[in-house]
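User: My collaborator and I are trying to settle a disagreement about how two of our proteins should look. Neither of us wants to argue from intuition anymore, so we agreed to look at predicted structures for both before our next call. Could you fold the first one, then the second, and keep them clearly separated?

Assistant: That sounds like a sensible way to settle it. I'll keep them separate. The first protein:
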Amino acid sequence: MKSLLIALFFLNGALAQQCSYYPDSDISISPINYEPGGMDDCCKICEYTPGCGAFTWSGYNGGTCWLKNITGPLIYAPKNIVGILNKNVIPSPLPSINKCTMQSNTDIPGNDMINIPNSQASDCCNLCYLTQGCKAYTWSSVNNGTCWLKSGTTTSNNNGIIAGILTPATISWTLRETYDSTNFYSKFDFYTDGDPTHGYVDFVNQSVAQQKGLIAVNSNGTIYMGADHTNKATGRGRKSVRLSSKAAYNGGLFIHDLVHMPVGPGTWPAYWFIGPDWPNNGEADIIEGIGGNTKNAVTLHTADGCTMRKEYQQLFTGTFADGKNPGVPSTDCFIQDW
Protein backbone atom coordinates (compact mmCIF):
# COMPACT_ATOMS: atom_id res chain seq x y z
CA MET A 1 0.00 0.00 0.00
CA LYS A 2 2.85 2.37 0.77
CA SER A 3 4.45 1.83 -2.62
CA LEU A 4 1.13 2.62 -4.31
CA LEU A 5 0.84 5.90 -2.42
CA ILE A 6 4.40 6.84 -3.34
CA ALA A 7 3.70 6.05 -6.99
CA LEU A 8 0.56 8.20 -6.94
CA PHE A 9 2.45 11.02 -5.27
CA PHE A 10 5.09 11.12 -7.99
CA LEU A 11 2.49 10.79 -10.72
CA ASN A 12 0.55 13.78 -9.41
CA GLY A 13 3.76 15.76 -9.07
CA ALA A 14 4.69 15.05 -12.69
CA LEU A 15 1.28 16.10 -13.96
CA ALA A 16 1.39 19.36 -12.03
CA GLN A 17 4.63 20.48 -13.69
CA GLN A 18 3.16 21.60 -17.02
CA CYS A 19 5.28 24.71 -17.59
CA SER A 20 8.92 25.77 -17.45
CA TYR A 21 9.49 29.18 -15.86
CA TYR A 22 11.97 31.94 -16.74
CA PRO A 23 12.13 34.85 -14.25
CA ASP A 24 12.87 38.46 -15.21
CA SER A 25 11.84 37.87 -18.80
CA ASP A 26 9.12 38.53 -21.36
CA ILE A 27 8.11 37.44 -24.88
CA SER A 28 8.06 40.51 -27.06
CA ILE A 29 4.81 39.94 -28.95
CA SER A 30 1.25 41.12 -28.42
CA PRO A 31 -0.82 38.69 -26.32
CA ILE A 32 -3.65 36.66 -27.83
CA ASN A 33 -5.60 37.20 -24.60
CA TYR A 34 -5.11 38.07 -20.95
CA GLU A 35 -6.67 36.87 -17.72
CA PRO A 36 -6.26 37.81 -14.05
CA GLY A 37 -4.45 35.20 -11.98
CA GLY A 38 -1.36 33.96 -10.22
CA MET A 39 1.60 32.41 -11.98
CA ASP A 40 0.36 28.82 -11.53
CA ASP A 41 -3.07 29.87 -12.76
CA CYS A 42 -1.46 31.16 -15.96
CA CYS A 43 -0.07 27.73 -16.81
CA LYS A 44 -3.50 26.09 -16.54
CA ILE A 45 -5.22 28.91 -18.44
CA CYS A 46 -2.65 28.69 -21.25
CA GLU A 47 -2.97 24.90 -21.44
CA TYR A 48 -6.71 25.15 -22.11
CA THR A 49 -6.57 28.17 -24.43
CA PRO A 50 -6.38 27.23 -28.14
CA GLY A 51 -3.21 28.55 -29.75
CA CYS A 52 -1.45 29.39 -26.48
CA GLY A 53 2.12 28.12 -26.18
CA ALA A 54 3.46 30.36 -23.42
CA PHE A 55 2.58 33.29 -21.19
CA THR A 56 4.06 36.23 -19.35
CA TRP A 57 2.95 36.84 -15.77
CA SER A 58 3.19 40.35 -14.35
CA GLY A 59 1.99 42.01 -11.16
CA TYR A 60 -0.39 44.26 -13.11
CA ASN A 61 -3.75 44.59 -11.29
CA GLY A 62 -2.60 42.17 -8.61
CA GLY A 63 -1.48 39.54 -11.13
CA THR A 64 -2.19 39.11 -14.84
CA CYS A 65 -1.55 36.27 -17.32
CA TRP A 66 -0.62 37.57 -20.79
CA LEU A 67 -1.15 34.60 -23.13
CA LYS A 68 1.20 34.23 -26.12
CA ASN A 69 1.09 32.10 -29.26
CA ILE A 70 4.89 31.78 -29.56
CA THR A 71 7.54 30.69 -27.05
CA GLY A 72 10.35 33.16 -27.76
CA PRO A 73 12.69 34.84 -28.10
CA LEU A 74 12.86 35.98 -24.50
CA ILE A 75 13.85 39.51 -23.54
CA TYR A 76 14.92 40.91 -20.19
CA ALA A 77 11.96 42.29 -18.21
CA PRO A 78 12.49 42.74 -14.46
CA LYS A 79 9.79 41.25 -12.18
CA ASN A 80 7.97 39.53 -15.06
CA ILE A 81 7.98 35.74 -15.40
CA VAL A 82 7.64 33.75 -18.62
CA GLY A 83 6.08 30.29 -18.55
CA ILE A 84 6.40 27.91 -21.51
CA LEU A 85 4.11 24.89 -21.86
CA ASN A 86 5.98 21.59 -21.72
CA LYS A 87 3.13 19.65 -23.33
CA ASN A 88 4.13 17.83 -26.53
CA VAL A 89 7.44 19.69 -26.74
CA ILE A 90 10.89 18.46 -25.76
CA PRO A 91 12.34 21.44 -23.87
CA SER A 92 15.68 22.69 -25.11
CA PRO A 93 18.11 24.57 -22.89
CA LEU A 94 17.66 28.29 -23.36
CA PRO A 95 20.57 30.68 -22.94
CA SER A 96 20.46 33.05 -20.01
CA ILE A 97 18.44 36.16 -20.78
CA ASN A 98 20.51 38.95 -22.29
CA LYS A 99 20.74 41.79 -19.80
CA CYS A 100 21.73 45.41 -20.16
CA THR A 101 22.66 47.82 -17.42
CA MET A 102 20.29 50.72 -18.07
CA GLN A 103 20.91 54.33 -17.02
CA SER A 104 18.45 57.20 -17.33
CA ASN A 105 19.46 60.66 -18.59
CA THR A 106 22.62 59.15 -20.05
CA ASP A 107 24.03 59.24 -23.57
CA ILE A 108 26.87 57.46 -25.37
CA PRO A 109 28.22 60.07 -27.81
CA GLY A 110 29.46 58.84 -31.19
CA ASN A 111 30.22 55.17 -31.80
CA ASP A 112 27.02 54.91 -33.88
CA MET A 113 26.49 51.64 -35.75
CA ILE A 114 22.83 51.67 -36.80
CA ASN A 115 19.56 53.19 -35.61
CA ILE A 116 16.34 51.18 -35.52
CA PRO A 117 12.86 52.56 -34.80
CA ASN A 118 11.48 50.99 -31.64
CA SER A 119 8.92 52.34 -29.19
CA GLN A 120 10.36 50.55 -26.14
CA ALA A 121 13.82 51.09 -24.73
CA SER A 122 13.85 47.55 -23.30
CA ASP A 123 13.81 46.05 -26.83
CA CYS A 124 17.11 47.77 -27.68
CA CYS A 125 19.01 45.30 -25.49
CA ASN A 126 18.11 42.27 -27.61
CA LEU A 127 18.77 44.19 -30.84
CA CYS A 128 22.24 45.04 -29.54
CA TYR A 129 22.88 41.41 -28.58
CA LEU A 130 21.94 40.27 -32.10
CA THR A 131 24.16 42.84 -33.83
CA GLN A 132 27.82 41.93 -34.24
CA GLY A 133 30.12 44.46 -32.60
CA CYS A 134 27.39 46.14 -30.54
CA LYS A 135 28.39 46.84 -26.94
CA ALA A 136 25.73 49.32 -25.87
CA TYR A 137 22.80 51.40 -27.04
CA THR A 138 20.94 54.59 -26.37
CA TRP A 139 17.20 55.07 -26.70
CA SER A 140 15.46 58.36 -27.37
CA SER A 141 11.90 59.41 -28.17
CA VAL A 142 12.90 60.58 -31.67
CA ASN A 143 10.35 59.36 -34.26
CA ASN A 144 8.23 57.78 -31.49
CA GLY A 145 11.24 55.86 -30.22
CA THR A 146 14.62 54.89 -31.68
CA CYS A 147 17.37 52.48 -30.64
CA TRP A 148 20.86 53.78 -31.45
CA LEU A 149 23.25 50.82 -31.39
CA LYS A 150 26.80 51.64 -30.28
CA SER A 151 30.25 50.10 -30.61
CA GLY A 152 31.55 51.91 -27.50
CA THR A 153 30.45 52.34 -23.89
CA THR A 154 31.72 55.79 -22.76
CA THR A 155 28.78 57.71 -21.28
CA SER A 156 27.87 61.34 -20.66
CA ASN A 157 24.88 63.13 -19.14
CA ASN A 158 21.95 63.92 -21.43
CA ASN A 159 18.41 64.49 -20.16
CA GLY A 160 15.70 62.31 -21.69
CA ILE A 161 18.08 59.70 -23.11
CA ILE A 162 18.32 56.12 -21.82
CA ALA A 163 21.58 54.22 -22.22
CA GLY A 164 22.12 50.49 -21.88
CA ILE A 165 25.41 48.60 -21.73
CA LEU A 166 25.26 44.97 -22.80
CA THR A 167 26.14 42.19 -20.39
CA PRO A 168 26.34 39.19 -22.75
CA ALA A 169 24.58 36.04 -21.62
CA THR A 170 26.62 32.94 -20.89
CA ILE A 171 25.26 30.05 -22.94
CA SER A 172 25.54 26.53 -21.59
CA TRP A 173 24.11 23.41 -23.21
CA THR A 174 22.94 20.08 -21.86
CA LEU A 175 22.69 17.00 -24.08
CA ARG A 176 19.00 16.05 -24.21
CA GLU A 177 18.77 13.53 -27.03
CA THR A 178 20.97 11.51 -29.38
CA TYR A 179 19.98 10.07 -32.75
CA ASP A 180 22.34 7.23 -33.69
CA SER A 181 22.49 3.68 -35.07
CA THR A 182 20.73 2.26 -32.00
CA ASN A 183 17.52 4.27 -32.37
CA PHE A 184 17.59 6.41 -35.51
CA TYR A 185 14.70 5.06 -37.59
CA SER A 186 12.47 4.48 -34.55
CA LYS A 187 12.52 8.23 -33.91
CA PHE A 188 11.03 9.13 -37.30
CA ASP A 189 7.80 8.73 -39.24
CA PHE A 190 8.13 7.86 -42.92
CA TYR A 191 6.28 10.34 -45.14
CA THR A 192 4.41 8.60 -47.98
CA ASP A 193 2.13 11.31 -49.41
CA GLY A 194 2.76 13.12 -52.68
CA ASP A 195 5.70 15.49 -52.88
CA PRO A 196 4.49 19.01 -51.88
CA THR A 197 7.21 20.50 -54.10
CA HIS A 198 5.90 18.49 -57.10
CA GLY A 199 9.04 16.47 -57.73
CA TYR A 200 9.02 13.19 -59.67
CA VAL A 201 9.44 11.05 -56.57
CA ASP A 202 7.65 8.22 -54.78
CA PHE A 203 8.24 8.43 -51.02
CA VAL A 204 7.95 4.92 -49.57
CA ASN A 205 7.31 3.54 -46.08
CA GLN A 206 9.92 1.99 -43.82
CA SER A 207 9.34 -1.64 -44.80
CA VAL A 208 9.58 -0.90 -48.54
CA ALA A 209 12.65 1.27 -47.95
CA GLN A 210 14.37 -1.56 -46.07
CA GLN A 211 13.39 -4.13 -48.69
CA LYS A 212 14.80 -2.03 -51.53
CA GLY A 213 17.94 -0.99 -49.65
CA LEU A 214 17.03 2.69 -49.43
CA ILE A 215 17.77 2.76 -45.69
CA ALA A 216 20.31 0.82 -43.64
CA VAL A 217 22.63 0.89 -40.65
CA ASN A 218 26.16 0.16 -41.82
CA SER A 219 28.58 -2.08 -39.92
CA ASN A 220 30.56 0.98 -38.78
CA GLY A 221 27.42 2.47 -37.19
CA THR A 222 26.70 5.09 -39.85
CA ILE A 223 23.14 5.65 -41.04
CA TYR A 224 22.42 5.24 -44.76
CA MET A 225 19.52 6.90 -46.57
CA GLY A 226 19.23 7.12 -50.34
CA ALA A 227 17.07 6.98 -53.44
CA ASP A 228 16.68 4.08 -55.85
CA HIS A 229 19.63 4.48 -58.25
CA THR A 230 19.42 1.11 -60.02
CA ASN A 231 15.93 1.02 -61.56
CA LYS A 232 14.17 3.22 -64.08
CA ALA A 233 11.62 5.48 -62.39
CA THR A 234 7.98 4.80 -63.26
CA GLY A 235 4.55 5.72 -61.92
CA ARG A 236 4.75 8.34 -59.16
CA GLY A 237 8.49 8.67 -59.67
CA ARG A 238 11.83 7.51 -58.31
CA LYS A 239 11.53 5.71 -54.99
CA SER A 240 13.08 7.62 -52.13
CA VAL A 241 12.58 8.42 -48.44
CA ARG A 242 11.44 11.47 -46.52
CA LEU A 243 11.45 11.29 -42.71
CA SER A 244 9.81 13.52 -40.09
CA SER A 245 10.87 13.36 -36.45
CA LYS A 246 8.29 12.17 -33.95
CA ALA A 247 9.56 14.73 -31.45
CA ALA A 248 8.97 18.48 -31.69
CA TYR A 249 11.41 21.13 -30.49
CA ASN A 250 11.12 24.78 -29.51
CA GLY A 251 14.81 25.56 -29.98
CA GLY A 252 18.25 24.25 -29.17
CA LEU A 253 21.66 23.42 -30.61
CA PHE A 254 21.46 20.62 -33.19
CA ILE A 255 24.66 18.90 -34.33
CA HIS A 256 24.46 16.83 -37.52
CA ASP A 257 27.46 14.69 -38.55
CA LEU A 258 27.32 13.91 -42.28
CA VAL A 259 29.78 11.65 -44.08
CA HIS A 260 28.39 12.13 -47.59
CA MET A 261 25.59 13.94 -49.45
CA PRO A 262 24.51 13.06 -52.99
CA VAL A 263 24.99 15.59 -55.78
CA GLY A 264 23.88 15.75 -59.40
CA PRO A 265 20.73 15.96 -61.54
CA GLY A 266 17.61 14.70 -59.79
CA THR A 267 19.02 14.83 -56.25
CA TRP A 268 17.65 16.99 -53.44
CA PRO A 269 19.23 16.12 -50.07
CA ALA A 270 17.77 18.29 -47.32
CA TYR A 271 17.57 18.76 -43.55
CA TRP A 272 14.67 21.03 -42.55
CA PHE A 273 12.75 22.26 -39.55
CA ILE A 274 9.09 23.06 -40.19
CA GLY A 275 6.17 24.28 -38.09
CA PRO A 276 3.03 22.22 -37.43
CA ASP A 277 1.00 24.06 -40.10
CA TRP A 278 3.41 24.22 -43.03
CA PRO A 279 4.08 26.69 -44.57
CA ASN A 280 2.20 29.10 -42.29
CA ASN A 281 4.38 28.41 -39.24
CA GLY A 282 7.58 28.79 -41.21
CA GLU A 283 10.42 26.61 -42.39
CA ALA A 284 14.13 26.62 -41.61
CA ASP A 285 16.31 24.85 -44.20
CA ILE A 286 19.57 23.91 -42.47
CA ILE A 287 20.94 21.78 -45.32
CA GLU A 288 19.67 21.85 -48.88
CA GLY A 289 21.63 20.92 -51.98
CA ILE A 290 19.58 20.79 -55.16
CA GLY A 291 20.92 19.13 -58.30
CA GLY A 292 24.39 20.36 -59.17
CA ASN A 293 24.54 23.23 -56.66
CA THR A 294 28.03 23.56 -55.21
CA LYS A 295 26.90 25.55 -52.15
CA ASN A 296 24.52 24.74 -49.33
CA ALA A 297 21.29 26.76 -49.32
CA VAL A 298 20.56 27.92 -45.77
CA THR A 299 17.10 29.44 -45.94
CA LEU A 300 14.37 30.72 -43.62
CA HIS A 301 10.89 30.71 -45.18
CA THR A 302 7.57 32.19 -44.10
CA ALA A 303 4.07 32.13 -45.54
CA ASP A 304 3.08 34.59 -48.27
CA GLY A 305 2.50 38.24 -47.53
CA CYS A 306 5.21 38.91 -44.94
CA THR A 307 7.20 42.13 -44.72
CA MET A 308 10.40 43.21 -43.00
CA ARG A 309 11.52 46.74 -42.25
CA LYS A 310 14.73 47.69 -44.05
CA GLU A 311 16.40 48.55 -40.74
CA TYR A 312 16.17 44.92 -39.64
CA GLN A 313 17.55 43.68 -42.95
CA GLN A 314 20.88 45.17 -41.92
CA LEU A 315 21.13 42.81 -38.94
CA PHE A 316 21.96 39.62 -40.86
CA THR A 317 24.30 38.54 -43.65
CA GLY A 318 21.77 36.80 -45.89
CA THR A 319 19.57 38.13 -48.67
CA PHE A 320 15.96 38.98 -47.85
CA ALA A 321 13.38 38.40 -50.59
CA ASP A 322 9.64 38.96 -50.58
CA GLY A 323 8.80 38.72 -54.28
CA LYS A 324 9.47 42.44 -54.75
CA ASN A 325 13.26 42.35 -54.91
CA PRO A 326 14.53 42.79 -58.50
CA GLY A 327 15.93 39.54 -59.84
CA VAL A 328 14.83 37.51 -56.82
CA PRO A 329 11.39 36.05 -57.58
CA SER A 330 9.55 34.61 -54.60
CA THR A 331 6.07 33.56 -53.56
CA ASP A 332 6.90 33.84 -49.87
CA CYS A 333 9.41 35.73 -47.74
CA PHE A 334 12.77 34.17 -47.15
CA ILE A 335 16.28 34.91 -45.99
CA GLN A 336 18.94 33.03 -47.92
CA ASP A 337 22.59 32.80 -46.95
CA TRP A 338 24.79 30.95 -49.46
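The second protein, kept apart from the first:
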Amino acid sequence: VDFRHLVDQLPAGASFTMISDSCHSGGLIDKEKEQIGPSTVLQSRTVAGMEKIQYRSKARVIPFKAVLQYLATVSGIDSPEIGDHLSALFGREASLRFQPGARGVHRRTDDGILMSGCQSDETSADACPTGDPAEAYGAFSNALQMALREVKGRIGNRELVKMVRKLLREGEYEQHPCLYCSDENADAPFLWQPIISCERKERHSAT
Protein backbone atom coordinates (compact mmCIF):
# COMPACT_ATOMS: atom_id res chain seq x y z
CA VAL A 1 0.00 0.00 0.00
CA ASP A 2 1.31 3.46 -0.87
CA PHE A 3 1.94 5.67 2.15
CA ARG A 4 0.35 8.53 0.23
CA HIS A 5 -2.87 6.50 0.15
CA LEU A 6 -2.76 6.22 3.96
CA VAL A 7 -1.91 9.89 4.47
CA ASP A 8 -4.80 11.02 2.29
CA GLN A 9 -7.23 9.24 4.61
CA LEU A 10 -6.24 11.31 7.64
CA PRO A 11 -8.99 13.45 9.18
CA ALA A 12 -8.67 17.22 8.90
CA GLY A 13 -6.18 18.66 11.38
CA ALA A 14 -4.29 15.39 11.83
CA SER A 15 -0.67 14.84 10.81
CA PHE A 16 1.21 11.66 9.92
CA THR A 17 4.87 11.54 10.97
CA MET A 18 6.86 8.65 9.53
CA ILE A 19 10.40 7.83 10.68
CA SER A 20 11.96 5.31 8.32
CA ASP A 21 15.38 3.87 9.16
CA SER A 22 15.53 1.68 6.06
CA CYS A 23 17.58 1.62 2.89
CA HIS A 24 16.42 3.81 -0.02
CA SER A 25 13.78 5.42 2.22
CA GLY A 26 13.97 8.94 0.79
CA GLY A 27 10.67 10.06 -0.74
CA LEU A 28 8.53 7.19 0.57
CA ILE A 29 5.48 9.47 0.89
CA ASP A 30 4.65 10.42 -2.68
CA LYS A 31 4.13 14.12 -3.49
CA GLU A 32 5.60 15.40 -0.22
CA LYS A 33 7.88 18.39 -0.74
CA GLU A 34 11.58 17.83 -0.16
CA GLN A 35 12.82 20.15 2.59
CA ILE A 36 16.20 18.49 3.19
CA GLY A 37 17.49 16.00 0.65
CA PRO A 38 19.48 15.39 -2.54
CA SER A 39 17.92 18.36 -4.35
CA THR A 40 18.62 20.73 -1.45
CA VAL A 41 21.92 22.56 -1.77
CA LEU A 42 23.81 24.36 0.98
CA GLN A 43 24.53 27.94 0.05
CA SER A 44 26.70 30.24 2.13
CA ARG A 45 26.74 34.01 2.02
CA THR A 46 28.33 36.74 4.11
CA VAL A 47 26.09 39.21 5.91
CA ALA A 48 27.56 42.00 8.06
CA GLY A 49 30.90 40.21 8.16
CA MET A 50 29.39 36.91 9.30
CA GLU A 51 28.92 33.81 7.18
CA LYS A 52 25.39 32.49 7.10
CA ILE A 53 24.38 29.15 5.62
CA GLN A 54 21.04 28.77 3.91
CA TYR A 55 19.30 25.96 2.10
CA ARG A 56 18.07 26.38 -1.44
CA SER A 57 16.39 23.85 -3.67
CA LYS A 58 17.66 22.79 -7.05
CA ALA A 59 15.21 20.90 -9.22
CA ARG A 60 16.41 17.63 -10.73
CA VAL A 61 13.99 16.05 -13.17
CA ILE A 62 13.82 13.61 -16.05
CA PRO A 63 11.74 15.00 -18.94
CA PHE A 64 8.25 13.50 -18.99
CA LYS A 65 8.54 12.69 -22.69
CA ALA A 66 11.70 10.65 -22.12
CA VAL A 67 10.03 8.62 -19.35
CA LEU A 68 6.96 8.00 -21.49
CA GLN A 69 9.01 6.90 -24.49
CA TYR A 70 10.99 4.42 -22.40
CA LEU A 71 7.88 2.92 -20.81
CA ALA A 72 6.24 2.56 -24.22
CA THR A 73 9.18 0.50 -25.48
CA VAL A 74 8.93 -2.00 -22.61
CA SER A 75 5.13 -2.12 -22.22
CA GLY A 76 4.38 -2.39 -25.93
CA ILE A 77 1.28 -0.18 -25.73
CA ASP A 78 0.52 3.23 -27.20
CA SER A 79 -0.81 5.56 -24.52
CA PRO A 80 0.01 9.08 -23.28
CA GLU A 81 -0.77 7.97 -19.69
CA ILE A 82 2.15 6.67 -17.62
CA GLY A 83 -0.32 4.80 -15.43
CA ASP A 84 -1.46 2.70 -18.40
CA HIS A 85 2.10 1.55 -19.03
CA LEU A 86 2.76 0.73 -15.37
CA SER A 87 -0.52 -1.15 -15.08
CA ALA A 88 0.36 -3.16 -18.19
CA LEU A 89 3.82 -3.96 -16.83
CA PHE A 90 2.99 -4.71 -13.21
CA GLY A 91 -0.72 -5.57 -13.18
CA ARG A 92 -2.11 -5.75 -9.65
CA GLU A 93 1.36 -5.00 -8.29
CA ALA A 94 1.21 -1.48 -9.75
CA SER A 95 0.87 1.44 -7.36
CA LEU A 96 -2.61 2.11 -6.00
CA ARG A 97 -2.63 5.49 -7.70
CA PHE A 98 -2.73 3.67 -11.04
CA GLN A 99 -5.50 1.25 -10.12
CA PRO A 100 -8.95 1.70 -11.72
CA GLY A 101 -10.85 4.57 -10.13
CA ALA A 102 -7.79 6.04 -8.44
CA ARG A 103 -6.93 8.63 -11.07
CA GLY A 104 -8.19 12.12 -10.64
CA VAL A 105 -8.41 11.76 -6.86
CA HIS A 106 -7.16 14.85 -5.06
CA ARG A 107 -3.97 14.08 -3.16
CA ARG A 108 -3.11 16.39 -0.31
CA THR A 109 0.53 17.27 0.13
CA ASP A 110 0.50 18.88 3.55
CA ASP A 111 -0.44 16.13 6.00
CA GLY A 112 2.53 13.78 5.74
CA ILE A 113 5.92 14.24 7.40
CA LEU A 114 8.70 11.84 6.42
CA MET A 115 12.07 11.65 8.14
CA SER A 116 14.10 9.13 6.19
CA GLY A 117 17.36 7.58 7.31
CA CYS A 118 18.93 8.17 3.92
CA GLN A 119 18.33 9.34 0.37
CA SER A 120 16.50 7.15 -2.14
CA ASP A 121 19.81 6.08 -3.70
CA GLU A 122 21.55 5.29 -0.40
CA THR A 123 21.54 2.57 2.25
CA SER A 124 20.75 3.13 5.92
CA ALA A 125 23.60 1.82 8.05
CA ASP A 126 23.55 -0.22 11.24
CA ALA A 127 25.75 0.60 14.21
CA CYS A 128 27.36 -2.32 16.01
CA PRO A 129 29.93 -1.08 18.57
CA THR A 130 30.23 -4.47 20.33
CA GLY A 131 30.73 -6.44 17.13
CA ASP A 132 27.79 -8.69 18.01
CA PRO A 133 25.17 -8.58 15.19
CA ALA A 134 22.46 -9.34 17.75
CA GLU A 135 23.19 -5.99 19.41
CA ALA A 136 23.21 -3.91 16.22
CA TYR A 137 20.85 -0.95 15.86
CA GLY A 138 20.02 1.63 13.24
CA ALA A 139 22.53 4.47 13.11
CA PHE A 140 19.81 6.95 12.08
CA SER A 141 17.43 5.87 14.86
CA ASN A 142 20.22 6.15 17.41
CA ALA A 143 21.27 9.60 16.18
CA LEU A 144 17.65 10.76 16.31
CA GLN A 145 17.35 9.71 19.95
CA MET A 146 20.69 11.34 20.78
CA ALA A 147 19.53 14.61 19.23
CA LEU A 148 16.25 14.57 21.17
CA ARG A 149 18.13 13.98 24.43
CA GLU A 150 20.28 17.04 23.72
CA VAL A 151 17.31 19.31 23.08
CA LYS A 152 16.05 21.48 25.91
CA GLY A 153 12.45 22.26 25.05
CA ARG A 154 10.76 21.84 21.70
CA ILE A 155 12.48 21.43 18.33
CA GLY A 156 11.12 21.71 14.81
CA ASN A 157 11.27 18.91 12.25
CA ARG A 158 13.79 20.72 10.05
CA GLU A 159 16.18 21.52 12.90
CA LEU A 160 15.95 17.96 14.20
CA VAL A 161 16.95 16.44 10.85
CA LYS A 162 19.84 18.91 10.58
CA MET A 163 21.04 17.83 14.04
CA VAL A 164 20.80 14.16 13.09
CA ARG A 165 22.77 14.79 9.90
CA LYS A 166 25.50 16.47 11.93
CA LEU A 167 25.69 13.58 14.41
CA LEU A 168 25.95 10.99 11.64
CA ARG A 169 28.58 13.04 9.85
CA GLU A 170 30.62 13.20 13.06
CA GLY A 171 30.25 9.43 13.35
CA GLU A 172 31.64 9.11 9.80
CA TYR A 173 28.46 7.60 8.37
CA GLU A 174 27.94 8.24 4.67
CA GLN A 175 24.13 8.33 4.63
CA HIS A 176 22.17 11.58 4.43
CA PRO A 177 18.86 11.72 6.34
CA CYS A 178 16.10 13.65 4.56
CA LEU A 179 12.94 15.54 5.44
CA TYR A 180 9.84 15.60 3.25
CA CYS A 181 6.82 17.69 4.25
CA SER A 182 5.06 20.99 3.63
CA ASP A 183 6.76 24.31 4.41
CA GLU A 184 4.48 24.72 7.42
CA ASN A 185 5.26 21.30 8.86
CA ALA A 186 9.00 21.74 8.27
CA ASP A 187 9.17 24.18 11.17
CA ALA A 188 6.37 22.64 13.23
CA PRO A 189 7.39 20.97 16.52
CA PHE A 190 8.50 17.36 16.14
CA LEU A 191 5.50 15.13 16.91
CA TRP A 192 3.56 18.26 17.87
CA GLN A 193 5.43 18.81 21.12
CA PRO A 194 3.43 21.02 23.50
CA ILE A 195 4.59 24.61 23.81
CA ILE A 196 4.94 25.84 27.39
CA SER A 197 3.98 29.50 27.60
CA CYS A 198 6.13 32.05 29.42
CA GLU A 199 3.39 32.44 32.04
CA ARG A 200 3.37 28.71 32.78
CA LYS A 201 7.18 28.67 32.93
CA GLU A 202 7.17 31.48 35.49
CA ARG A 203 4.59 29.71 37.67
CA HIS A 204 6.57 26.48 37.42
CA SER A 205 9.79 28.26 38.42
CA ALA A 206 8.06 29.94 41.35
CA THR A 207 6.92 26.62 42.74
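Some points you might bring to the call about the second protein. The first strand starts at residue 16 and ends at 20. Residues 3-206 form one domain.
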